[in-house]
UniProtKB/TrEMBL annotation:
Nitroreductase domain span: 4-66
Organism: Halolamina pelagica
Protein name per Swiss-Prot or TrEMBL: Nitroreductase family protein
Domain of life: Archaea
Pfam families on file: Nitroreductase
Molecular-function GO terms, alphabetical: oxidoreductase activity
C-alpha cells in the first residue's frame, strides 16, 4: 500500500475527527446536553494553553453543557433547510433543480 503525503494524512485526520465529534455530539444530545462544534480557533494558542504536544494537531473543539432554559436556539425557529427529497437521491443520482422561494429563505434568516 502506498504511503499518503502529509496533506492527505491531514485531510483524513480532519475527516475522522469530524466524524468522532459528530458522534460525541449525538451521544451528548441523547443525554440531554447541548453541544456546538467550533472550527475557527487559534490552534497554536490552544496548544500552548493546554500543553498539547507536538504529535497532536487540534482540528475541532466541541462545547458541551446544559442549555439555559431561555437559550436563543431553543426559542428560535429553524433556519431554512432544503427538504430531504432535495438532498437524498435514491437508486441513482439525478440532482433536481430546487424550487426555492426566495421570500421564504429571506424570511427565515430575518427571524434570526
Amino acid at each position: 500500500m502506498a504511503e499518503r503525503d502529509e496533506s492527505e494524512n491531514r485531510l483524513w485526520a480532519t475527516r475522522s475527527t469530524a466524524l468522532a465529534g459528530m458522534t460525541l455530539m449525538h451521544a451528548a444530545r441523547a443525554e440531554g446536553l447541548a453541544t456546538c462544534p467550533v472550527g475557527g480557533f487559534d490552534g497554536e494558542a490552544l496548544r500552548g494553553e493546554f500543553d498539547i504536544g507536538d504529535g497532536y494537531e487540534p482540528v475541532m473543539l466541541v462545547t458541551m453543557g446544559h442549555a439555559a432554559a431561555n437559550a436563543r436556539d431553543t426559542n428560535t425557529p429553524r433556519k431554512f433547510r432544503r427538504s430531504v427529497d432535495d438532498i437524498v437521491h435514491r437508486e441513482e443520482f439525478e440532482p433536481a433543480e430546487a424550487e426555492l422561494d426566495d421570500g421564504v429563505v429571506a424570511e427565515s434568516y430575518a427571524t434570526q
